[in-house]
Amino acid sequence: MAVRRASSTASHCSQSLLLLFFLYLLVCAHGVPNYSDALVKSILFFQGQRSGKLPRDQRITWRSSSALSDGAAAHVDLTGGYYDAGDNVKFNFPMAFTTTMLSWSAIEYGKRMGAQLENVRVAIRWATDYLLKCANATPGKLYVGVGDPNTDHKCWERPEDMDTVRSVYSVSAANPGSDVAGETAAALAAASIVFLRVDPMYSKLLLRTARKVMQFAVQYRGAYSDSLNSAVCPFYCSYSGYKDELLWGASWLLRATNDVTYFNLLKSLGANDSPDIFSWDNKYAGAHVLLSRRALLNKDKSFEQFNQQAEDFMCKIIPGSPSSTTQYTPGGLMYKLGQSNLQYVTSITFLLTTYAKYMQASRYTFRCGNTMVTPNTLKITAKRQVDYILGQNPMKMSYMVGYGPDFPRRIHHRGSSLPSKTSHPQEIGCDGGFQPFFYSSNPNPNILVGAIVGGPNQNDFFSDDRTDYSHSEPATYINAAIVGPLAYFSTTR
Fold first, then answer.
1. pLDDT tens digits for 12-63?
2. Closest C-alpha among 59, 57, 25, 27 to residue 45
3. Of residues 152, 244, 464, 471, which has the active-site annotation?
4. Is 464 assigned a catalytic role?
5. For 115-144, what is the mean pLDDT?
6. Where are the domains of the chain?
7. What are the residues whose beta carbons fall under 8 Å from the beta carbon of 98, sequence distance 6 or more?
């Protein structure tokens, strides 16, 4: 009996341990996001947005080469770059911001990315090769976009079938665009840091071009929206003006060169706005966090103003802060604006993790009123946003396509929603995609792996409706900003 009891008890313990082990695996699989997997997919997404001639190692294979004559209208080569979202237009303003954020991710978090760092570099270079063409093709001009958005948005066709006019847009001394030029300079300067050691010659070209474009932005001041009107508005108007891009561009050139010229430019811009948002349009908070690095890590007192502004921004974001101006949904998602809200969530989350990183390295804390803010305060806030996006939300849905068991299947994206050239070689014209594809309730035939959509509404509800572009459309600038936080949390526990 004793032996049998012992055997029975041992068996029971073994079963209990086995059950606990399986419960542990279940929690790991469904309770804790797989940040490394999400990181891989967030970078892969950019291959689905490529314009131009695709390389042999293209991994999103339902895409094919497209827009191979871009720039012909101006007798220049403007092939390459990225389509901004679910359409077939190349808007350089958000594309340059996307490039800057990908570069910042590589600079801050590259050591945490492992093998993915090279994939990030590839994604950056696909954009910078194009931006270099835009900056260097014609003396005195900066090309800032290809494709008539008003015509394009009336069509639902694959980029491979595109038959709409590929208008070419530019800014110049007579028609300035300090905002788009400042952002382009920021992108090229940030990328020059990424390639400094792995491709020094390319890095020098990027930096030389960044200096030239920044000089243009400063010398000929004006908003590109005023010059180009309906070609960029209401799609990517410069709502915040161009001063933030001058600040942003100067901040990145200072980081890349340490040239006092750019510090003097920062000082000449005077007092800056302190908004509670960070996006492709409004760069103030990003510049303040970037510049705060010198105050915190280098103990440079001449940058304390920017550090104070970075703190003010954090106090407007943190839940429970007496100066918070940020709404959160019942499920805990930061909610800024109804249209494509996740773009603000990912961008602000990047600033949270990056400022937390600077604080931790300098053993720094600050207060929002009576609330003590530590690096962990910011990390917890950022992690909650990333986890929400990856499925820890009331809908139990990942807002990253292809990640987790449940994700958006009907995203507002032409290439994803229409059959590929392989499965449907016949051309689909401008109107040919609406019926039966756009208005269909069927899932998209092509999965745009890694794409993060606009996200749920203020009540945490998401309808997964292709016609609802404000919630179901992905965009390069949503993804670019989450790459850094995903790399951070993939190696932080």
1. 333 333 333 333 343 344 478 999 999 999 999 999 999 999 999 999 999 9
2. 59
3. 464
4. yes
5. 98
6. 320-413+448-493
7. 82, 127, 280, 476, 477, 479, 480
